[in-house]
Amino acid sequence: MVDEIERKWLVDKIPFDLNQFDSSEINQAYLGVVDFDNDEIRLRKKKNKYLMTIKKGAGEKRGEAEVEITGEVYKQISSLQNLNWIKKIRYEIPEGKNIIEFDIYHGDLEGLLTAEVEFESLEEEKSYVPKNWFGREVTFDKCYKNKYLARDGFPKN
Fold this sequence. Notes:
CATH topology: Hypothetical Protein Pfu-838710-001
Low-confidence stretches: none
Strand content: over 45%
CATH class: Mainly Beta
Mean pLDDT: 91
Structural class: mainly beta
Number of helices: 3
Largest sheet: 8 strands, antiparallel, barrel
């Protein structure tokens, strides 16, 4: 398991023409776990890639293990009833050595826009200056974690 260090912000509106950036449609589901607040098991389809991810912990630094699975395994698991799904388009916006992952959510979460940035170290994360088009930071607001968005829908706050 490796450490994932990231921060997340709400975005009020699409800041510029996104067609110049790589994008992918993402469908992901969250499976039940023993400690929902700190752990997650995610099933994801992104382009022609199928992934199973386990994350442990909370906040900006969490443990993460990810393995590629076959389309058949993805299909079998995704056919299970009562999975909590998220559908979004992710744009990858280069920013120096980082990538801003700009997500436009669809379905029940239509209208939600977020930006996430992943970092190589806590020092880099602490010194990061958010772009002026980023809104309120929601890194520590569990309502905006994808597993909660999938289960609970659009946050009330």
